[in-house]
Amino acid sequence: MEYLPTIGPAAWTHGEQLHYASPNTDLLGLVVERVAGAPLATVIAERLWAPLGAERDAELAVDPAGAGVISGGFCATLRDYARLGALVAEGGRDIVPADWIAALGGDEYANQWWLRDGRVTARGIHGQCIAVDPNGTVVAILSSWPHAEDERRDAEQRALIGRVTG
Question: Looking at residue 1, what is its pLDDT?
Fold first, then answer.
């Protein structure tokens, strides 16, 4: 929490350009904890993971102060990530509001999901990906790229998703 105020303002005005920044996601996790009055891991477990029918518990890394590191510390099985993608493909199934699901991806990024190649996509560091095609096909990929960003591997992954969703 002490780190967030040291970031300072962006060099552009809000809405002028897209700039993903992990600390914003971590701050969102802190807001959820404060509003729910419970640790983020508990909120996710009770309000998403259990109703989703997840096969395994997910894990959430925490910082030294005990705050959830949602920007890159959420760990789950491939099958449960696929279940999350199916939840999106099925409009939220009364677990997540349908209007929130409908807004995913926006023009490029909204509600923590990206719009890539016409698919609503959740992206994680080092290549993790859940892609939901408009036809309802879900592709979930767990990977461990050696670097957080890799243009070649990203292009290969996008091509693979395109072949799978046809």
Answer: 65
